[in-house]
Design a protein that fits this description.
The protein has 275 residues and is α/β, with parallel strands linked by helices. The chain has a domain at 4-119 and 196-204 and 256-274. Helices cover 41% and strands 15% of the residues. Strands 3-2-1-4-9-6-10 form a seven-stranded mixed sheet. Helix 5 crosses helix 6 and helix 9 runs antiparallel to helix 11 (239-255). It is globular and about 50 Å long.
Length: 275
């Protein structure tokens, strides 16, 4: 890949050929047995044992503590995953992954400090199935009845988090943030109806990346004392990853000159099995 080092995070050893064909650095996470061709989060200063709860952020922690300072500043560094990739913004009729994904830095990126994914919105209240609302969000809706008077039935970041990851948990976490970000992030989760999903970003400044990590990880560590690790269900087990996902959009929006870029979904694990 030209002019950028792209780290592609995967849970599956068998996705290696596809990741390498793109020119990305393969990063193995989780419990699979990865060969020596993979970079992993299990060496040096690491939180690999928390991967089940932190998701992609167990590698980001490793990258922060063991790799970041060794990288030459001013060069683009990016992160994607085996199911979510930075898209090629130019029209193409080809369907292969390499044609669909970013292969070199576009010229207009040089005007920005960071790239985050194009924001995706939640389904409106009208679009959600009643069974899903009853299962995940009834208590949240009772406590937040204003949405019934919202003309478009839009669900903001806070309400969606309450519905999917435990009512009130986002506010509990925000209470633990540092003074500089606490109320700004709280306002962001109430004002915004979309965010960049996937825990992905691209940046060309080591200083910016370090500042993001220095803000994120001490906060998540404080959250551990509230939520712990005896967590059940996907929505709660990965709560630290979901908190980080919302915080990423807020932090890069507030502190960087950033550009929104398309993210495509392409499951290389399934793609490999079909071939």
């Amino acid at each position: 890949m030209k002019n950028i080092t792209m780290y592609c995070l995967s849970l599956h050893e068998k996705t290696l050929p596809t990741i390498k064909s793109l020119g990305y650095v393969p990063v193995g996470l989780g419990t699979d047995n990865f060969s020596d061709e993979w970079l992993t989060d299990k060496t040096g200063d690491n939180i690999a044992h928390k991967n089940k709860f932190y998701g992609e952020y167990s590698f980001h922690y490793w990258f922060w503590k063991n790799k970041l300072q060794k990288i030459e500043d001013g060069k683009w560094i990016g992160f994607c995953a085996y199911r979510e990739f930075w898209g090629n913004k130019y029209p193409t009729t080809k369907k292969d992954l390499k044609s669909l994904t970013l292969q070199e830095i576009p010229k207009n990126w040089e005007n920005f400090e960071a790239i985050i994914g194009e924001h995706r919105s939640f389904k409106s209240l009208k679009e959600l199935k009643f069974s899903k609302i009853f299962k995940h969000g009834l208590l949240s809706l009772v406590r937040n009845p204003y949405i019934f008077f919202n003309k478009h039935g839009k669900i903001n970041i806070r309400l969606q988090f309450d519905m999917m990851h435990g009512n009130g948990n986002l506010d509990k976490a925000i209470d633990l943030l540092d003074d500089e970000n606490r109320e700004d992030f709280r306002y962001f989760t109430r004002k915004e109806y979309t965010f960049a999903r996937g825990n992905m970003f691209v940046c060309k400044s080591k200083k910016i990346i370090a500042k993001y990590y220095e803000s994120l990880f001490p906060w998540l560590e404080k959250c551990e004392k509230v939520f712990g690790f005896n967590l059940k269900g996907y929505g709660m087990t990965r709560i630290y990853a979901f908190l980080g996902e919302r915080y990423l959009s807020y932090w890069f929006t507030k502190y960087t000159k950033h550009l929104l870029w398309p993210v495509i979904f392409y499951d290389t694990n399934k793609h490999y099995e079909k071939n």
